[in-house]
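INTERNAL AUDIT FORM
Audit reference: QA-55
Scope: verify that the stored structure record matches its stored sequence.
Auditor: D.O.
Record contents follow.
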Amino acid sequence: MKMKMEDSVAAVEKIIGYTFRNKNLLEEALTHSSYPESVSYERLEFIGDAVLGHAISNHLFLVYTNVDQRQLSLLRSANVSTEKLARAAVSNCLHRYIRLKTHSLAEHIREFAAAVEQEKGRAIVLYGGAVKASKVLADVVESVAAAVYVDLDFDLKKLWVVIRGLLEPIVTLNDLEQKPQPVTMLYEICHKNGKKVDIRHSRNGDKSTASVYVDGELFAVASSDQKDIAKLDAAKSAVQKLERVLPITTTTPDNCKGLDGTFEIEEPKQKLYALCGRKKWPTPVYSIERDEGTPQNKIFVTSVQVATPDGTLKMLGEEKSRVKDSQNSAASLMIRALLQSQLV
């Protein structure tokens, strides 16, 4: 039995923690254009796309006071992407209250929601999971945000107070450092090493195949029902292979040897990320080299790699009890190595 629209509106109000003065706005925000008996969310989506971008931009500007425009743009894009917003819709159960009459769209939403549910408890997914994100779900989140914005007489500050919870967890600079976009990373690695990369697509029945060619040679292949996911998977595979075959400096340069693990600087991960951005180098890549001990007495050692015009440098941090601290240790030593090598 289908839920009445009045009940859907009440349920969504409870989810977002806001009671509408004009409930027709929320009804509109939950209605797809395939549903003929009511006005669809298309007009609200138009304003929601802009207002969500504006709201998250304000938030990022205030939180990250020492990062440049490029990094802020990457953070904003990650937080308002179709992937992020569609997952927000599922995480907050908004998909249960959408009105639409297109079977294929409804089936895709169910498949995506089921995949997201299976991924619960895992690390944040930025660039595509097992099922391609539903644009309808992302549109609904934008439309709900717009409905709140209009109902609040276009007050952006009040909107952020209401809507922020719907967007949690906010993608952070640390998330981007840990999970660089695979396709972007592939092109950056090849560019830095003077190699030409080409991604070609083909389709066989229901399967889309992405093939990565490096300097004209087939390097990685991946297939999926979705073209975008095939491309992401092929890029991930290619990056992993490139990291194995390209020359990597596993220790510091000669004039940087002997650095002790007591060297620390304030906010080293953020500063290393900003430094690489200014130099137009690829994003630093962190890897856990050691994970030992009991849950009450853990030991982590993390490495960081930075690709420079002179090659890729790799630095090991000292032992720490938290992953974040071990990453900061590696970043501190990498910054010092770069300074002493006169690369920065």
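Auditor finding: record pair retrieved intact. The radius of gyration is 23 Å.
Action required: none
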